[in-house]
Amino acid sequence: MIERLAAVLARHATVDGTTATAQPRTYLLRCSVATEPLPVVHRPAVCFVAQGAKETMLGEHAYRYEPPQFLVVSAELPITGQILRAAPEQPYLCLRLDLDAATLAAVIQDAGQAPAVRDAVQRGLAVSTAGPELLDAVTRLAALLDAPAAQQRFLAPLAEREILYRLLLGEQGERLRQIASADSKLARINRAIAWIKSHYADTLRVDALAALASMSPSSFHEHFRTVTAMSPLQYQKQLRLQEARRLMLAQALDAATAGFKVGYESPSQFSREYARRFGLPPKREIERVREQWRAMPEFV
């Protein structure tokens, strides 16, 4: 079954990078070489690996996965991903299904399942092994890429719902139920994350974020760290540095301008924190990236 899934993905992901499909929330990922660690902000999703191996770092926590394993991401997280096993003749191949809270809630309701039965906050990343039934559903969703557009429009939502249903029955079911529950602690932390993401250049006030999440400041800080493996201020810093890096690469901004645009008032502080995050000062790191990774996409 894994070989069937890999064959379908190889037919439709013909170049390295992320390929959008006609099916909502479904993306194909391909990489023909092992990579250095690449920083990205990962959206809530399930990533099914069909070929190769990858490691994702969240803070100091490492998550390695390969067939028939899959990665579950339950919050928008600044992570570092590294393709560990890939080659031109046998590239890394992955199907990513983005998680939609409304679709999850509808599946839970239509299946007659109970909502989240407990509200213990969990880390925003997890790795599990896909059983035959789940793999079969994922393979059938991918195989619809070979079907006419009319069949895809009708059958892809059904295949997505089956995948979500089988995930809800498995060991990650409680995590998905918390995504679907608007009042779960995870959903409330996600509201705070969404605010930070859209206001990353602004001054961050933890008490205001706690109020947005309907939590006390101490409870909010604890739960936020559990989900993201970092404090709210560290999370904001990660977003700022990644956005500054993107601006320098995509718009050729100098370090001082990029740092100012993302909220840094001190160029020296920006340079220090950038070097701490990416291993080199901004100018040298961007030059290295342009030389070595100009053609390499960000795999999310």
TrEMBL record:
<protein>
    <submittedName>
        <fullName>AraC family transcriptional regulator</fullName>
    </submittedName>
</protein>
<dbReference type="InterPro" id="IPR018060">
    <property type="entry name" value="HTH_AraC"/>
</dbReference>
<feature type="domain" description="HTH araC/xylS-type">
    <location>
        <begin position="190"/>
        <end position="288"/>
    </location>
</feature>
<keyword id="KW-0804">Transcription</keyword>
<dbReference type="InterPro" id="IPR009057">
    <property type="entry name" value="Homeodomain-like_sf"/>
</dbReference>
<dbReference type="InterPro" id="IPR009594">
    <property type="entry name" value="Tscrpt_reg_HTH_AraC_N"/>
</dbReference>
<dbReference type="Pfam" id="PF06719">
    <property type="entry name" value="AraC_N"/>
</dbReference>
<dbReference type="Pfam" id="PF12833">
    <property type="entry name" value="HTH_18"/>
</dbReference>
<keyword id="KW-0805">Transcription regulation</keyword>
